[in-house]
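Q: How would the structure tokens look for this protein?
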Amino acid sequence: MAASAASAAAAPTAPVPVSLRLGDLVWGKLGRYPPWPGKIVNPPKDLKKPRGKKCFFVKFFGTEDHAWIKVEQLKPYHAHKEEMIKINKGKRFQQAVDAVEEFLKKGKGKDQDLTIPESSTVKRMMTGTVAGFKWPPSVSEPAVCYQAITKKLKETGSTSIQAADSTAINGSITPTDKKIGFLGLGLMGSGIVSNLLKMGHTVTVWNRTAEKCDLFIQEGARLGRTPAEVVSTCDITFACVSDPKAAKDLVLGPSGVLQGIRPGKCYVDMSTVDADTVTELAQVIVSRGGRFLEAPVSGNQQLSNDGMLVILAAGDRGLYEDCSSCFQAMGKTSFFLGEVGNAAKMMLIVNMVQGSFMATIAEGLTLAQVTGQSQQTLLDILNQGQLASIFLDQKCQNILQGNFKPDFYLKYIQKDLRLAIALGDSVNHPTPMAAAANEVYKRAKALDQSDNDMSAVYRAYIH
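A: Here is the predicted structure in token form.
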């Protein structure tokens, strides 16, 4: 009897499940994102709970996000506060924690402090286009037991650190333990670095205009004084600059990348350039014992902020695999296309199609105007037909509103058209549509539209 009692006392006890209820403060983990402070609240009346495992509807502090979270992804706020503060860093995280403490100081707050949008708004957000992509996911995407609602990011400019708020549908990301460097904090690079930091990567940044680094340093990035220093202190260094000349200068110029390359160092060029340029860069990097991957990205500033870029890679296959967690953080998918040069060619073809389409959209809107037709009605008709797309709607809205704040610089799409035409010439393949579109963009550049969004090509038709 005594032996049995002793055995029972010595036997390990099963963990007692935590009981959660409406109104509790919690740490909620949403997909691949780190745990975030929130409160269990009532969902809108018409919002059904997902089928499957038990979930709670959580309103997150410091953001406008709400989501169904699996119970096993929730932890009581107070019991795990010290643990979470140790493992999570960043200005936005601290602001969220401060918001919880302020909430508690006000006598645990009032319900209106954490209001949920009306059910009709929530349903529209969940079934429409959210932050640049369609929700819910298609049936081909991984199943999830939560439904997340994400506020579309405010347009805060190229150096905004308030990025990486896309809905997580790809599962958890375990950041690589390799030290990451990033060179170039323009429209695309800023969103990419924000995502890398948010997903827990150790990142050292450099930019030609050093002030652009400040926001990222506040978020936990390290500052590199020169490209050579970044490469020499990091395992994998990414670069994203404007054109072939900038890409070459970054590698071959004073205190450039090449000076920091030694055996085993890895360099990933994400710039959109021609195949000859990227081949030349690969050769000089490899000649110093380095490893090289080209990885240009298809997307714009919004998709970069949302972590929804499409990455086209070619070169060192092992390096491509080593970049896995980085690519998951910055993009929704990636393609490996074989030998160096293939990604550059494919990227130019993609942008050639996009640039030509944009010119056609602008041409159609101006023709509608001069023939007395409603431009808004034309957009409505197109949005109900086979050409309907996020790209079409956003660019038409830019034109109708006269808002040409850059999401993809006009000067860069013209550069890509020029390079695509040259690619066609190199294989004696005609590109008459791209050539015609290129002339329209050149006209827009002559009208001082270079630093506006590509949709400003519209102005070439009305002047």
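The radius of gyration is 25 Å.

The first helix runs from residue 2 to 10.

Upvote if useful.
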